[in-house]
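Quick sanity check, Thrombomodulin:
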Amino acid sequence: MRRLPLPLLLAGLGLGLGLGLGELEPPVPSGAQCLEHDCFAVFWTPGSFAAASAACERHGGHLMTVRSTVAEDAIGLLLRNRGGRLWLGLRLPTPCTEPERRLRGFQWVTGDTRTDYDNWAPSGRRCGQLCVAVSRELSWEERRCEEPADGFLCEYNYPDSCPRLPAADGASLTYRTPFGAAGGDFLALPPGSTAFVSPMGLQLLCEAAAVGGRTRWGRSEPGAWPCRLSNGGCEGSCEELDGTPRCSCPTGKKLGPDGRGCLSPCAGAPCEQHCVPDGESFHCMCSEGYQLGPDGSSCQDVDDCVKVPEVCEQVCHNTEGGFECLCHRGYEMVEGHCMPVPNCSTGPCDHICEDVPGSYRCSCDDGYVVDLKNPTQCVRQCEDGRCLAECDATGLSCVCPDGFVTDHLPDGVTLCVDIDECENNYCDHNCTNTPGSYTCHCQPGYVLVDVNDCKPISMEDNVDEYSGDSGPSLPFPSRVPPKAEHLHPGALVGITVGVLCGALVLLAVGYHLARKRCQPPSSMEYKCGSPREKEMGLQQVSASQKV
């Protein structure tokens, strides 16, 4: 057996394992599909979820997100009925799956869970480091992330794309994308893609969109290529004079530096503010308040305050690109004009005027008050039910405050007389008339519910919240009775002695009255004696009669 030299053996191991001899080139996709802004590629390279994700990221992509049926259709075209399982961009950030949720707790590698589509294979709740792979039947299966899958799907996103080049007579086209996909059946190509045209020997590049333009095919050499292939790359018209293709632009535009694009004459113009096209040339202009500088491109501020006639009535303050009008002290700006600040010399106060900073304040003489509708006027203050009416100069039109009516006296004086609203029975119960108004009062047992009406006080208003008694309410004192206090022991002894002394006095008086009643003259003593005593007394009387 022939032995390989040691350097070649080490190089082979390095290329196969990627050990310290530089990073391996990303694998070449087996197929790709591109839309206007997205490209999808399939890689039949076995590996773990982490290795697949890293391979997609090398060309600015990520593992594929399947958020709609459009992405599912792209997967079907990429698989082409080939068996195996491919990693998708779904991984589980939580300890266990949540089968009741649409994505079962999984998250896209883009960091979100937004989707309008899912196609899960039947599975219960599982735990661990799980990722998702798609099978030949396009169903989603949960797998352990460290286990190798048969390959993976990558997704690349772009802001714009170049259209497929139209077929030219006798020419064949081959495209190559930035992520390594090659072929001739692409419908759209992302920026950075190349197109090889044979037998012209032409290589074109899908260039990123210029400012205000779209992504289009171009090349590093300036000028047009053969007009039969995509108009020679000209934005305007393509012509071949003496066998040499050339581009031309419509009126008002000029050829760009690449000899194919058309630009405005103002493109790249040094004008500071405004550029106005002038055929294939231009000239600069400035906004109002500025004037063009000596260099023909810069703009300088115009001092409006030195213009004649003056732009302001009193004080002018120049600003960048304009000016500001101000007023002297004692004046204020009113609709663009300086007007004197109102004070007592110009104020329309009816009675008394008081100067205050920057204005004035009106007040009224005694017996008058400020009119609420016109703070500069005064009206009579009616307190006793009669006051003078406010009349015009002719005396034909007189006005009274609310709650008063006019009363014309014979001497021509018009008074305002208070209306007694209580005579109109506005109140349910009692009424008190006031100047210009009235006040209602309710009888006992009623309460005022609005300005005029009374309602009985409901039993619920007086029920003790702790008693639960629903019987008739008892009258309650208008003042809270004094709080009971404990008596001092000495006071109790004094009260007891006093009661006993009073009882003894009453007994002595009763005894004295009884004795006085029972001791009359001797002829009447029997009335109060015992029966025996009565008998002895009768005997004594009989004896004396005998003598």
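Posting the structure with no commentary besides this: The domain at 26-157 is CATH 3.10.100.10 (Mannose-Binding Protein A; Chain A).
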